[in-house]
Specification:
single chain, alpha/beta, eight-stranded parallel beta sheet
Length: about 240
């Protein structure tokens, strides 16, 4: 394993979207696996795009009863195989509350055995969503998640968005919030995510205003898989 990403975020943060994008991009050049570990949120989860993921060469693990009418948070035992298999990139999509983080905690011993530099635990923040609309809310949830998961967050992701209505102003809102949170916690901002146009507009504003790169991190362009635009809806459906 060359890289292991653990993405945590509240409902609506876009963590599943980013998880899919990282997996898809990695699968273009190496063996990639995505573990849908979100046992809390039954909507907008990575497994909903199982067909596209597998067509792109991404191996997918998900809760046993996902996409059924059975509401039982049961995880397949073969998830442990991702730590010993020959995958190059492993991505965990984790429920962004204490209950979801508890599911992650059972793999703590496996994460601890990874070589230094392989693991990134990333907290995805969208200030346009409930429970993450203020630094205080994010900090409170962050503390609970780190305690339950027994994994320290290594970086934040600015994924401020309003779905199809997202603009550079949303990322500016995220920048301001993440600056406060990063300064309080000492945790860096690892990535700023968005579609191509939104990122380009934000980058232009960031340069003009001389925003601090420390609170921007690396720009990561994403495609939209979870919320279909009209063209993708007409060809692929919901």
């Amino acid at each position: 394993m060359n890289k292991c990403y653990v993405l945590i975020g509240n409902f609506g943060s876009g963590k599943s979207e980013i998880s899919i994008n990282i997996s898809m991009q990695a699968a273009k050049k190496e063996k990639a696996v995505l573990v849908d570990l979100d046992i809390v949120n039954p909507y907008f989860r990575s497994v909903e795009r199982k067909g596209e993921l597998e067509a792109a060469g991404v191996k997918l693990y998900h809760p046993i009863f996902a996409l059924t009418t059975v509401d039982v948070p049961s995880l397949p035992p073969d998830i442990y195989s991702v730590f010993v298999g020959d995958y190059d990139t492993v991505v965990f999509d984790v429920g962004g509350d204490p209950a979801g983080a508890t599911a992650l905690g059972q793999y703590r011993a496996n994460f601890a055995k990874l070589p230094e530099g392989v693991l990134e635990v990333l907290y995805v923040i969208n200030p346009n969503r409930p429970l993450s609309s203020s630094p205080e809310q994010v900090l409170e949830m962050l503390e609970k998640i780190q305690y339950r998961s027994r994994l320290p967050v290594s970086g934040f992701i600015n994924n401020a968005n309003l779905a199809g209505e997202t603009s550079a102003d949303d990322l500016l809102l995220g920048y301001d919030m993440l600056k406060i949170i990063s300064e309080k916690t000492g945790i860096p901002v690892s990535y700023t995510c968005g579609t191509k146009t939104v990122l380009e507009n934000f980058a232009k504003i960031a340069k003009e205003r001389e925003l601090n790169d420390r609170y921007i991190g690396e720009y990561k362009e994403i495609q939209i898989y979870m919320h279909r635009d009209w063209d993708r809806f007409t060809t692929l459906g919901v």
